[in-house]
Task: structure prediction
Amino acid sequence: MDRRNSPWIYLNLKVWGLGQSATLAINERSRELAAQGRQIYRLGLGQSPFPVPESVAQALRDHAHQKDYLAVKGLPALRQAIVDFFRRTEDLEYDADSVLVGPGTKELMFILQLTYYGDLVIPTPSWVSYAPQAQILGRPLQWLPTAPETGLGVTPEALDALCRIEPERPRLLILNSPGNPTGTVYSRDRLEAIAEVARRYRVLLLSDEIYSGTQFDGDHVSIARYYPEGTIISNGLSKWCGAGGWRLGAFVFPAGLNKLLRGMAAVASETFTSTSAPIQYAAVRGFQGGPDIDVYLDRSRRLLQALAEFAHARLVETGAEVSCPAGGFYIFPNFESHRERLLQRGIHDNASMCERLLEETGVACLPGSVFGRPPTEFSTRLAYVDFDGGPALEALAELPAGELPDAHFLRTWCPRTVAGFEHLADWIAS
Ligand code: PLP
Result:
């Protein structure tokens, strides 16, 4: 057969129509505009503004010579440091053998969805990559309805209503606290109530705790405390340790899910083999913690909290419906109260709202639709981390312990974030 006239490439149908991750796309467009000389306020991408703590960076330098492939589940010393971390921070007991280390939690989430057989259940809105991963793998996806009064997060009632329809169906619920894109943190009572429903229907739970160390009150609570037998915990260095580009994440499994862990480790052995050796050695230092990391976390949280409160107050002034984040890097306003005005300006959905905002003010943000909200709802995710965290953390050392930085501090050390929110608020009101 002569193949010269047939298509060169055949795309797997599951990947058909899948664009580049929305967060990366907005970043690229922002870079293009910046290259044209435009001032860009990068409220689109959520990467930690803070440097990796010096002791962790030093550990990486010290282990640059580590060149061997490591065990697929991870370096034993790192797995031990991770279980010690959960004992120290959450009072949870695991065996080092119950840890699977990977090149970022995103990759582990993909392998989990590939290995576990069941529907994916996530609230609307949810982080951008959970749903595309399900699509790539052909997993059925169920969106849980949410309400502003409950921080747009999972409620036990919504989970129960979904599970009741087909109680025997295997399901994987991802619970993310502090949450991306909303900054919502689940109370202990709510976690307990969700755990009760999950137990009733044997729902497998992935607790995405990647922002745990950024929770402003420093008191993160894992749902694994209430549902240990059915919860896998996901955490890593990307957010609280400022090391997104290092690509290190880990899952911790309860003993009863050992079969799933073994299945995932088998897939890992056939795909990424093992996570970068020097990074794993350095991560031991990160998970071990210590006084320097406590100070780093305390200062990061105070600055993030002050920025969240500033952003919230500014958005409320515009008439937006928005809850104040309790952790993480993001805030998720809804400008439905400006619907008529936006329509008059020819803006009919959240994607065109974000495009126009970027073109007219240089403020980059992400439309609510990429988080699973309806395209016509005027919601958007704004990240309040467009600043250089190194000098800001040093300046914070001058503040009395426990004090939040004031508006003057934010204008001095986080000028682009402050200006970005001011421009956004003016644009919405204009
Ligand atoms: N979960 C959430 C909610 C995130 O925001 C991110 C990164 O942006 C991840 C998971 C993935 O993190 P990583 O793959 O860097 O561990």
